[in-house]
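Revision sheet: structure tokens.
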Amino acid sequence: MNALETYTSLKPNILLATTDASYALLLSENLEQRGFEVEHTSNMRLAIERIRLHAFDLCMLQTGTMSATALQTLREIRQYDEKIPVLLLSEKYEKEAILDGYAAGCDEYVVTPVSVDILECKLYSWLRRAVVDVRLSLAKISIGEFVLDPSRQTFSNASMSRHLSAKQTLLLQLLAQNKNKVVEREIILRKVWRDDSVFAARSLRVYINKLKQMFADIDGIEVLSVARRGYMLAEE
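Predicted:
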């Protein structure tokens, strides 16, 4: 069992922002082999938009030759989300560069090259600190003729199996544990997003719409929006 598996069997979703395509491919492949989900963006300016829409568990910014852009991106991330762990990866080891990184808002400044084993431990350490205080059970949940398996992040029945993202799994799990009951929007944001900002609320609506689409062709089960309150998984 690796360090990540002792943290949770749900795959943490990481945003990697770097203009170095070769580095991104190599690092992503190594981390995905170790159980992480990694999304890469080569446009630093788009990193904040990706975080707003997808609520990543952690972000890594690699400065390269775009150090000023990376630091500005980091500042913008911090203006939007003070809680998401952000690791700044850089070849620069001078005192001034490190101080600039922490001043911009990074949680840890990682001098590269760094072994994947060490980086994995650093990621695990920050993810463990950021985990929601109320841990959802990993027990399977029946939803009609379907089964939600949080440990595998799957929603399946006898004839099909759909893989879900970590956020989709947590959201559906929370709704399923309160089947036919309204789950307040604030509770969802606090337990799943760890954030109650306007941007997190928008991201929640995106995920809710995806769940509605998933259940659109399934008889007897639907996700309902309850005005000014929250959402409900309704099952006949």
